[in-house]
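User: Sequence recovery, please. Input:
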């Protein structure tokens, strides 16, 4: 028998790479890597684990990948409720940020966000916010994988006096973390309506020089598209194509207001797209054409967006919304099969980050980022389809979460973190912010 660190015996294992849900299988993990996925009976004959976790009512999945977030905005949760996007930004969010964003604020908000993400199954995330160095510090402390998309915008911010300083800080952050196994720096030009052609061109140049990915809010509303056409005669995606921005390293976020030509362009350049359905519905931005993107072969991913526009960081809930929006919007029950939903929140996100050889599936040789979904709730019974129970009921619950084979969350508790104390700190910070 081979000595290993951990064996997880599960009732079901969902494998998006095989398009299967396996029954009575075990995941065998050693030194943070998956070394076997086999029937539990075989695992018990062939391995001697230091630790064994038995989950007779749970389904294992790969760790979730939240491809778009503004972590620190957990401290702005609920701000500007019931406002449309541009009013929400101009009247509620930007004034609060201008007055209160700091390294301290971002660190606290990021820690609170990561606690919620871990508790709900996210093991890897992409963040776009001020003071990304603070997010990196907290992510390392909590053991999460992240892509830091540095905030590039054509006006002064709390983080950078101008775009030149934003690029300088991006390069310094890249140099600091270029060899780190879990921190990946990317460029985050905010949106076409806040970025000049020259700044976009510089983003492409720097991305090519340093091998950085680019993430940008694109065509989030029809109003954004209409304004762009009036100003330049081009749709934003047409403009980005003409500037040479689009490619496999580009992540287009929201992409709500797409026409057929936009979809064909995104597919032609192998752009990854990120849908954030709860945020888009709350801000009344519209519904992304997710089925059409999938049919075009686009690598569709999913993100929660920030808690100010969502209001949570629960990617499983987000994926449920995405599935229902796809089916309802297309009037086609086959528009997004549940295994495809699981792919969107795991391997597709890993692919967009360039991490598909490390994470995103439960394959031998990959890092052991694993989520256990508890399906024991009696109101799920009779249970005939575990994927349907996971996505279509409100009672499926993320029970345990591992990163590199290390238990990071269990029944809502986060390793090494006092949730009650952290919640009090977040509430006090928000109270101080409002009373300032």
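Assistant: Recovered sequence (436 residues):
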């Amino acid at each position: 028998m081979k000595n290993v660190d951990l064996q997880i015996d599960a009732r079901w294992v969902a494998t998006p790479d095989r398009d299967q849900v396996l029954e009575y299988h075990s995941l065998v993990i050693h030194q943070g890597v998956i070394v076997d996925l086999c029937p539990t009976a075989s695992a018990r004959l062939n391995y001697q684990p230091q630790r064994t976790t038995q989950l007779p009512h749970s389904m294992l999945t790969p760790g979730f990948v939240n491809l778009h977030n503004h972590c620190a905005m957990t401290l702005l949760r609920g701000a500007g409720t019931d406002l449309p996007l541009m009013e929400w930004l101009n009247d509620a969010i930007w004034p609060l940020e201008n007055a209160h964003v700091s390294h301290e604020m971002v660190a606290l908000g990021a820690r609170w966000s990561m606690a919620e993400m871990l508790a709900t199954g996210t093991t890897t995330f992409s963040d776009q916010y001020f003071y990304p160095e603070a997010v990196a510090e907290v992510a390392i402390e909590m053991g999460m994988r992240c892509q830091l998309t540095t905030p590039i915008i054509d006006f002064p911010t709390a983080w950078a006096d101008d775009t030149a300083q934003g690029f300088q800080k991006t390069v310094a952050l890249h140099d600091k973390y270029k060899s780190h196994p879990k921190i990946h720096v990317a460029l985050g030009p905010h949106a076409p309506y806040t970025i000049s052609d020259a700044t976009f061109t510089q983003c492409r140049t720097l991305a090519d020089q340093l091998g950085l990915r680019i993430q940008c809010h694109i065509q989030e509303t029809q109003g954004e598209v209409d304004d762009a056409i009036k100003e330049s005669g081009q749709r934003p995606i047409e403009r980005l194509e003409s500037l040479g921005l689009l490619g496999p390293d580009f992540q287009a976020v929201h992409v709500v207001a797409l026409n057929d030509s936009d979809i064909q362009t995104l597919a032609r350049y192998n752009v990854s797209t990120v849908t954030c359905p709860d945020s888009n519905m709350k801000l009344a931005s519209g519904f992304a054409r997710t089925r059409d993107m999938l049919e075009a072969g686009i690598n569709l991913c999913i993100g929660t967006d920030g808690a100010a526009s969502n209001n949570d960081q629960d990617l499983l809930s987000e994926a449920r919304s995405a599935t229902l929006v796809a089916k309802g919007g297309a009037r086609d029950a086959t528009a997004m099969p549940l295994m495809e939903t699981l792919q969107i929140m795991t391997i597709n996100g890993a692919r967009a980050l360039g991490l598909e050889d490390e994470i995103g599936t439960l394959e031998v040789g990959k890092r052991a980022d694993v989520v256990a979904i508890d399906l024991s709730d009696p109101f799920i019974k009779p249970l005939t389809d575990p994927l349907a129970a996971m996505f279509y009921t409100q009672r499926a619950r993320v029970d345990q979460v591992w990163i590199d084979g290390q238990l990071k969350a269990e029944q809502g508790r986060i390793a090494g973190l006092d949730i009650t104390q952290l919640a009090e700190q977040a509430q006090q910070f928000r109270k101080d912010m409002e009373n300032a």
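The chain has a mean pLDDT of 96.
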